[in-house]
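Try this one yourself first.
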């Protein structure tokens, strides 16, 4: 008997039309294009329109992923949305997306792991497919972080942006061509909560709150924790890091993703970086980066890709897949 694999059948992404430059930000807070580029690699970020919600971004990315897979939503029986910026406290943004896509079957729910959310959602859907509870899944990372930023705090508001990315997973009896999610590795440790959190919520404050981050402390943890997770994952999968074709990191800061690559001796040409264009889009950033590299022809069918992320919680992890 062959094992069931979750194949990445399609990928899609969406960025809101409005682009905010570093120069524009320097008119809002005391910062400069030079500082932002040098410390983060970010040049621009996209900001959702007032009437554009996380679900709308997710729907656009999901439609693109379905088109890419040559499927319609009728063929999807699980929708998992990774978001820390849901449209509403409830219902889940996943059910809102389900309705906007015109589906009324299967199951839809959100997972909340902030910037690691896409990895958590991917691992969840992969396990649903492996155990036979779903035959196909839409995994969406969608965020409107612009709504939870303190636009007077230069240490955070220059870093984030809005966007969405999605993949379609389908059950495949592998390994015929070996394509699919190979292994995922998830970690969390709640004692780091004070380093990156939102200071509001329905139960604690009855407000939405704003993102607060001790950036340099997060930075310090990010490289080691992410690299450790990637090494453990590679060992569990029995695949050496040097066999990886593409490194698709969470797009938080150019210095972090290059730091991780250096630590694991991953050549710079194998690193997919899109942070400069859209900033940190939290759960959307991995599929946004992967989509860009698929579209420009770098990532090809059969390529081995290694994803990673660290976010509020802390949550962190890595995922290995053959595209
Ligand atoms: O996705 C979730 C995970 N999040 C991350 O991975 C983010 C991790 N952290 C980072 O990316 C970096 O720590 C930052 C980009 C947030 C900051 O870079 P840094 O090199 O760690 O700078 P710093 O926080 O140590 O600040 C250095 C200086 C400070 O001034 P003083 O105290 O040295 O006078 C800051 O006040 O830079 C100042 N500064 C700014 N200056 C101009 C902080 N933000 C700005 C700004 N413009 N926007």
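Now uncover the answer:
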């Amino acid at each position: 008997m062959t094992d069931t694999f979750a194949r990445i059948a399609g990928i899609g992404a969406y960025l809101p039309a409005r682009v905010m430059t570093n120069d524009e930000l320097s008119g809002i807070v005391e910062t400069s294009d030079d500082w932002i580029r040098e410390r983060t690699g970010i040049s621009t970020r996209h900001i959702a329109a007032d009437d554009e919600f996380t679900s709308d971004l997710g729907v656009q990315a999901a439609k693109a992923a379905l088109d890419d897979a040559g499927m319609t939503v009728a063929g999807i029986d699980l929708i998992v949305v990774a978001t820390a910026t849901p449209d509403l406290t409830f219902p889940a943004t996943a059910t809102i997306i389900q309705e906007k896509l015109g589906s009324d079957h299967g199951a839809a729910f959100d997972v909340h792991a902030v910037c690691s959310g896409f990895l958590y959602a991917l691992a969840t859907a992969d396990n649903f497919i492996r155990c036979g509870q779903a035959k196909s899944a839409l995994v969406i990372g969608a965020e409107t972080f612009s709504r939870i930023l303190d636009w007077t705090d230069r240490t955070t508001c220059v870093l984030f942006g809005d966007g969405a990315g999605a993949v379609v997973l389908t059950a495949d009896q592998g390994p015929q061509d070996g394509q699919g999610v190979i292994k995922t590795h998830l970690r969390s440790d709640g004692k780091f909560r004070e380093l990156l959190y939102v200071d509001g919520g329905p139960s604690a404050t009855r407000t939405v709150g704003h993102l607060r981050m001790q950036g340099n402390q997060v930075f310090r943890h990010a490289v080691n924790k992410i690299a450790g997770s990637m090494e453990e994952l590679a060992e569990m999968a029995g695949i050496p890091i040097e066999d990886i074709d593409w490194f698709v990191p969470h797009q938080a800061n150019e210095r972090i993703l290059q730091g991780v690559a250096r630590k694991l001796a991953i050549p710079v040409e194998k690193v997919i970086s899109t942070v400069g264009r859209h900033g940190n889009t939290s759960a959307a950033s991995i599929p946004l980066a992967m989509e860009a590299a698929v579209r420009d022809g770098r990532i090809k069918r059969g390529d081995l890709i290694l994803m990673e992320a660290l976010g509020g919680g802390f949550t962190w992890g890595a995922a290995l897949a053959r595209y």
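Discussion: The pocket of oxa(dethia)-CoA is lined by residues 31, 35, 39-40, 115, 154-155, 158-159, 215-216, 218-219, 222, 252-253, 256, 280, 310-311 (CB under 6 Å). The chain has a mean pLDDT of 96.
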